[in-house]
Design goal:
The chain is an alpha+beta fold and about 325 residues long. The chain contains 13 helices and nine strands.
Length: about 325
């Protein structure tokens, strides 16, 4: 009886261990069992035994600090977006980008996607240029070598090549009408009484410009309109106008408008917008497809290091990684 109990206990123990292993594999580690030996202080992440280094996060944070402070000033990091500190929001975007690049390199390896000789040479030149711009103290602080920097540029380039390879086969279209950009002038008021008064002034001979300057609170009266930017009632009225035509009184989103169309199709800007819309649709489709692959990957992340990083406190480096990378031509 005691032997039976012992054997039963052992069997139950084995079943529990096996169950735990399979749960770990399913929810935390994709399809393969993964044993972690931990990350050293220079390693930020590991996926499929391939590493992303801490200096990569610091370089992207340098870009972010330079970019946003140039546009909005140093106070931007105290702002909130959707109830979250702006700095934490941007930091999360950087984390997502680094994970995406690492997982894209895993898929590229499976697909056999590599850089050509000209691409590799261009990457090497870009990484050498970036590395040469760093001072000795910056190299030491980042714990970066030219070889590691070349690896970072290479992996971003391979990720871009994978993206182009996957999206080139996607059947995605954008109609010229959906992409059409029009130029308008507008008058806006808070009440119907005011807009009717403004409309009366125009019909009695006052110029649209003069009336707009009088009634619009901020003095602005011209707008380059793309579909999806404004309230549907406003857009419907605007897009139904031909060049030179003026609308009646339009109520949209609690405001009152008069719209005048100065160009019902800015062809150059429409082409630019069409290209941007196509790229956005490709990106959305890629994210949907690649997200399934990425979700199965076990991502080992160095939280202790990551939590110490601050975009607003990081050093701004002499060159922008993004600008330097964009100088590379990837086919």
């Amino acid at each position: 009886m005691k032997r039976k109990k012992k054997r039963l206990l052992m069997l139950l123990t084995i079943l529990i261990i096996v169950t735990i292993v399979f749960l770990f594999m399913k929810f935390f580690n994709g399809k393969l069992f993964y044993l972690s030996t931990g990350l050293n202080k220079q390693t930020l992440m590991k996926v499929d035994n391939e590493k992303t280094y801490t200096f990569e996060a610091e370089i992207l944070m340098s870009d972010a600090r330079s970019q946003y402070e140039k546009m909005f000033g140093t106070g931007i990091w105290k702002e909130q977006i959707s109830g979250e500190p702006f700095e934490e929001y941007i930091k999360e975007q950087i984390r997502v980008k680094l994970i995406r690049v690492r997982c894209m390199n895993s898929l590229a390896k499976e697909k056999g996607i590599v850089l050509g000789r000209e691409e590799s040479d261009a990457v090497k030149n870009a990484s050498r240029k970036f590395y040469s711009s760093l001072s000795d103290s910056q190299k030491e602080s980042l714990s970066v070598t030219e070889e590691k920097l070349n690896q970072m540029f290479t992996e971003f380039a391979i990720a871009q090549k994978l993206y182009k390879d996957m999206t080139s086969l996607m059947d995605i279209e954008v109609s010229s009408d959906d992409a059409r950009v029009i130029n308008i002038q507008y008058i806006v008021t808070d009440t119907r009484e005011q807009i009717e008064k403004a409309y009366g002034e125009i019909t009695n001979g006052s110029s649209f410009f003069t009336v707009a300057k009088e009634y619009n609170p901020d003095g602005n009266y011209e707008y380059e309109l793309k579909k999806g930017e404004m309230d549907s009632a406003f857009e419907t009225a605007a897009y139904n106008l031909s060049t030179g035509e003026m609308s009646g009184i339009i109520e949209a989103a609690g405001k009152y408008y008069i719209i005048r169309c100065t160009s019902d199709n800015d062809k150059a800007k429409t082409e630019v917008n069409k290209t941007a819309m196509l790229e956005q649709k490709r990106l959305e489709k890629f994210n949907e497809t690649f997200g399934e692959y990425e979700a199965e990957k076990y991502i080992e992340w160095n939280d202790s290091y990551w939590n110490k990083l601050s975009i607003s406190q990081c050093e701004v480096l002499p060159l922008s990684f993004e600008d330097t990378f964009n100088s590379i031509s990837i086919n």
